[in-house]
Amino acid sequence: METINTAAAARHIIVVNGPNLGRLGVREPDVYGSDDLAALTRLCEGWGGELGLHVEVRQSDDEAEMIGWMHRAVDERTPVVMNPAAFTHYSYGLSDAAHMVTDTGLPLMEVHISNPSARDAFRKHSVISPVATGTITGMGFYGYRLALEAVAHLIE
Ligand code: DQA
């Protein structure tokens, strides 16, 4: 009979990036830094490895696709790290989908590279924060590491 060593199996986590984050490196480098999404992906995968997590980094400019990823996370019991980007500030659809994740007891950590509260007025409000497990802002790419550490701690 085949046996599975679940203790040794890395836990699958998705890191979901919203609109325009595929343009990291060229988009406002003074705000988001000069490294691109591929660099962020490599960092997240490496940090995941250190934490015993199998990290899968995704990016979409499409609200419906991101909502679908939340539905699948619920069905497959996958913890989520999410930078909702501009959807943070107005997508009730994504907020409801994120709520479904945390409502089932799965962690969903919200991350922002910049500190949106210190920027334009429209960035001061998040429709994701009230349904997220926690929020990390203003730490650059390192915020993703902090979010992954939080997930690793929460699923221990
Ligand atoms: C962002 C902040 C948002 O206000 C903005 O729309 C983004 C990126 C961040 O990572 O700092 O696209 O989520």
UniProtKB/TrEMBL annotation:
Site note Transition state stabilizer, residues: 27
GO biological process: amino acid biosynthetic process; aromatic amino acid family biosynthetic process; chorismate biosynthetic process; quinate catabolic process
Active site per the UniProt annotation: 32, 112
Family, similarity comment: Belongs to the type-II 3-dehydroquinase family.
EC number(s) given by UniProt: 4.2.1.10
Gene Ontology MF term list: 3-dehydroquinate dehydratase activity
Name of the featured protein: 3-dehydroquinate dehydratase
Pfam families for this protein: DHquinase_II (PF01220)
Function in brief: Catalyzes a trans-dehydration via an enolate intermediate.
Keyword terms, alphabetized: Amino-acid biosynthesis, Aromatic amino acid biosynthesis, Lyase
Binding site for substrate: 83, 89, 96, 113-114, 123
Catalytic reaction equation(s): 3-dehydroquinate = 3-dehydroshikimate + H2O
SUPFAM superfamilies membership: Type II 3-dehydroquinate dehydratase (SSF52304)
Subunit-structure text: Homododecamer.
Superkingdom of origin: Bacteria
Top EC group: lyase
Keyword Amino-acid biosynthesis: yes
Gene3D superfamilies: Dehydroquinase, class II
Pathway: Metabolic intermediate biosynthesis; chorismate biosynthesis; chorismate from D-erythrose 4-phosphate and phosphoenolpyruvate: step 3/7
Keyword set includes DNA-binding: no
Gene that produces this protein: aroQ
